[in-house]
Fold:
Amino acid sequence: QVKLEQSAAEVKKPGASVKVSCKASGYNFIDHGINWLRQAPGQGLQWMGWINSHNGYTKYAQMFQGRVTMATDTSTSTAYMELRSLRSDDTAIYYCARGRVNNSPWWFDPWGQGTLVIVSS
Amino acid sequence: EIVLTQSPATLSLSPGERATLSCRASQSISNYLGWYQQKPGQAPRLLIYDASNRATGIPPRFSGSGSGTDFTLTISSLEPEDFAVYYCQQRSKWPLTFGGGTKVEMK
Structure:
């Protein structure tokens, strides 16, 4: 079955960077893009951006532009999300989610299990 | 940015009852709306896409309707496993945005 396995939790200091990985299995990786989303403790969901796994095209939400980089490694069917200049309000669970429709970000299905990132001095 | 407003914030119902959740968009989004279910400690799960299409493996008690600015998720008869938080999400315009969620709790 389709599965996304994310990397383990991280604790970072303010100003540092974090890189979260998302390993896909159960489908042809280049046929579906990967979205990245986050959820602050007790809060709702926020979309961060999307990467086309076939050609590497990215679309980032404006509020993360310049601070986030998304990439894929097709040889290992793994997507990555790096967030820089971390602040305390970046503390959240970060999710990857496959785009349901081929080569588009539309509809997040399925999701990875989430990676908790804590930003604290 | 398109703002999605969900109501009510909390719905208190008993198993077997019908649940009706609302999502209103700040501008027309055609039928470009999806619904997700999230249980405590779990990642969200896609239920409905394009306003009324059930995702793979979603039971028929879940149905979606609406277009333009007003949308509804209906759970025809609540099962114990349906008590969760539900989010709507639009794909009409960047950035992709979510509503604030409706918690369906057991009465």
User: Anything to note?
Assistant: The two ends of chain B are 35 Å apart (CA to CA).
